[in-house]
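2024-03-11 09:14:02 DEBUG pipeline.ingest accepted 1 chain
2024-03-11 09:14:02 DEBUG pipeline.ingest length=490
2024-03-11 09:14:03 DEBUG pipeline.predict start
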Amino acid sequence: MKTLLTLGLMVLGFVTARAQTVKLAAPVAAYRSDRILVMPAHGISPGSLEAFQVSLNAQVLQRFPGLGELQVVSVPAGETVSGLIAKFEQSGLVQYAEPDFLRQLDLSPNDQYYTNGTLWGLHNSGQGGGVIDADIDAPEGWDVLSSASNIVVAVLDTGIRRTHEDLLANVWTNQLAGGYGWNALNGTGTPADDEGHGSHVSGILGAVGNNGKGVVGVAWRVQIMAGKCFDAARNGFDSDIIECLEFARTNGARIINMSLSGTAFSSSLSNAVFAARESGIIVVASCGNEAADVDVVPRYPACLDIDNVISVAASTRSDVLWASSNYGATNVDLAAPGHQITSTFAFTDNQYIGPLSGTSAAAPYVAGACALMLAKYPTETHPQIIARVLNAVDPLPSLAGKCVTGGRLNLRKALSPSIQLTSISAPGVLPYQLRVSAGPNRPCVIESSTDLTSWLPIHTNTTSASGTFDYTETASPNSSHRFFRAVSAL
């Protein structure tokens, strides 16, 4: 639909590149005592590494061919993790060996629904003492698009309650092998949720919309692939997370939601996220709930310096940073609603749980928005989609200096960015120079009129990755007085 817009101030885009994190002393990270991760060195004979492992009585438990033959190796009786790592590193047969680090889910419980105002993050009219419009403008965004039924979003978490009334129609199914995702804890395609976190996250991004039941997700229709890599005690290790990442990457996921974090940098986890990047997959990560600056003490995967990672903080119904949310001027990209969020319950098919708070709840807002963006712009790459999302935030004073964009997710702006036309030439100077600002890679038309009634197109172009293009008007200075406007060509 074409939209008439008047001349106005140009909206500047934000730089989306993440600065390289300086490694500082971090808390000692927990890890499994019975296995490590080993990356074979380039060009070595597989037999030589195998023989070395046999000499140590270390057994290869799992291999990841798509990640350079990364291996999960057992720690033999009488050996320690640090001791075994040292032996592998001294052998000259590996690029690296590292612990199988423990990561944690980023949702912290603190205590029904759209029509009664419970889902303030989607539409905020001031309910519960909140600030009007402190939301993602979901109703306005849904006027543009509400379905991403062809987009697969993997949720790496505690699993999902597949039979829930508000999730069942949107759960991805494996047409080749059966099942609805991958359970790395038992090696099956049935990642049932035995804790609740994964079902809560899934409902935020993709609970079925307009079905008269419970809650509604950011995307009314979407395919949610469940990846269970956390147990009922919310413990999850890198090897299991990587296994689910690889399953998602090789089974059609376009987006991966990772509402989890840890302080330890892992080369293996980083490589798995980079492999997802090479497959064009967007990774949405929560930045953690310690009220800490992650530019100082990073959290991973949110702080990985890879351009497919979107790092998300949590905002409140008052449009301020949630008190327990982490932040970071260079390592956190934007905020999204994450305080007092109600969603689908994991232990019955028709109940809901909340309000719960955490950056874990904020990340799936962004993942759902990205799914709708991919559905609307199917040919765009992951940097283009991410740029659309980040350039469309609502800037907030409370977020200035707390994240790259200084803003909170806005679905309407991301799906239908405003078009602005400004003059960039000095007053009275000919020829006129005009600038169209409309979000990245958007076809727009400049039209002119002498009476503000009849409009004729004079120039069509597509904005650059930064969201603009310029036009020089070469008409004779003796021509009739003319008006200009910019409209969408879509």
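2024-03-11 09:14:41 DEBUG pipeline.report The longest strand covers residues 94-105.
2024-03-11 09:14:41 DEBUG pipeline.predict end
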